[in-house]
TrEMBL record:
<dbReference type="GO" id="GO:0042391">
    <property type="term" value="P:regulation of membrane potential"/>
</dbReference>
<feature type="domain" description="Ion transport">
    <location>
        <begin position="32"/>
        <end position="201"/>
    </location>
</feature>
<keyword id="KW-0812">Transmembrane</keyword>
<dbReference type="InterPro" id="IPR003949">
    <property type="entry name" value="K_chnl_volt-dep_EAG"/>
</dbReference>
<feature type="transmembrane region" description="Helical">
    <location>
        <begin position="161"/>
        <end position="184"/>
    </location>
</feature>
<keyword id="KW-0472">Membrane</keyword>
<keyword id="KW-1133">Transmembrane helix</keyword>
<feature type="transmembrane region" description="Helical">
    <location>
        <begin position="36"/>
        <end position="55"/>
    </location>
</feature>
<dbReference type="InterPro" id="IPR005821">
    <property type="entry name" value="Ion_trans_dom"/>
</dbReference>
<keyword id="KW-0597">Phosphoprotein</keyword>
<dbReference type="InterPro" id="IPR050818">
    <property type="entry name" value="KCNH_animal-type"/>
</dbReference>
<dbReference type="Pfam" id="PF00520">
    <property type="entry name" value="Ion_trans"/>
</dbReference>
<feature type="transmembrane region" description="Helical">
    <location>
        <begin position="62"/>
        <end position="82"/>
    </location>
</feature>
<dbReference type="InterPro" id="IPR003938">
    <property type="entry name" value="K_chnl_volt-dep_EAG/ELK/ERG"/>
</dbReference>
<dbReference type="GO" id="GO:0008076">
    <property type="term" value="C:voltage-gated potassium channel complex"/>
</dbReference>
<dbReference type="GO" id="GO:0005249">
    <property type="term" value="F:voltage-gated potassium channel activity"/>
</dbReference>
<protein>
    <submittedName>
        <fullName>Potassium voltage-gated channel Eag-related subfamily H member 5</fullName>
    </submittedName>
</protein>
């Protein structure tokens, strides 16, 4: 009946609380749509950060990657601004709309991770002098890994959907694929490090022999797909 359905709806959704003009309710359509955009971009980040660290050149040869990553950084920065003006549910189930409490709660929570996630590391790296390119690139590459911590926010936002079997299955499959991708990137990085250290009996030289390209490294996408598939099969 109607009363049983109302019992399942949080009280703050049955009676919209009064908020200051610059405060956004966390469950309105705009914020829900924005959260899905952030979730999608976080997934993109989880895929591209390890890929760029393992495969991409440290120069500005591929401008498309630089432009896309810069756009993502801007959107993440806008998300920080919105989080300072978005309500949240307190421990007692009440909607907290006081601006000062919202800001303090965000500063004590995900602010540092979000801030480090939106810094334009690729732009900084692209304009470094040649003399400091290697050291600075390694530092920025390490800092970009912080972006993967945003996955914690994804799992928190998806909790409300995990009661559905299809959503749980999709999340599990996505987790396995993402893990295989990370292992593939690490595997390729290890193979590259072996080549730089003069070790020529790893999996990359064997791949070069298989495709008759013993004088050059394989294309990034070719080796990446191969190592990803092998990593995924090893998880089975």
């Amino acid at each position: 009946n109607t009363s049983s359905w109302l019992d399942l709806i949080p009280q703050y959704k049955q009676e919209a609380p009064k908020t200051p003009p610059h405060i956004i309710l966390h469950y309105v359509a705009f914020k829900t749509t924005w959260d899905w955009i952030i979730l999608f971009l976080t997934g993109y980040t989880a895929v591209m950060v390890p890929f760029n660290a393992a495969f991409k050149s440290k120069t500005m040869d591929d401008v498309s990657f630089l432009v896309v990553d810069s756009i993502v950084d801007v959107i993440f920065f806008i998300d920080i601004v919105l989080n300072f003006h978005t309500t949240f549910v307190g421990p007692n189930g009440d909607v907290i709309s006081d601006p000062n409490i919202i800001r303090i709660n965000y500063l004590k929570g995900w602010f540092i991770v979000d801030l480090l996630s939106c810094l334009p590391y690729d732009v900084f790296n692209a304009f470094q002098p040649e003399a400091t390119q290697s050291t600075i690139s390694s530092l920025f590459g390490a800092l970009k890994v912080v972006r993967l911590l945003r996955i914690g926010r994804v799992t928190r936002k998806l909790d409300q959907y995990l009661e559905y079997m299809a959503a749980s299955l999709l999340l599990m499959i996505s987790g396995f694929v993402l893990l295989a991708h990370w292992l593939a990137c690490v595997w390729y990085s290890v193979g590259q490090a072996d080549l730089k250290n003069g070790i020529y009996y790893g999996w990359i030289p064997r791949l070069l022999n298989d495709i008759d390209q013993t004088k050059a490294l394989p294309a990034n996408w070719t080796s990446g797909v191969r190592s990803c598939l092998i990593s995924f099969l090893n998880l089975q």
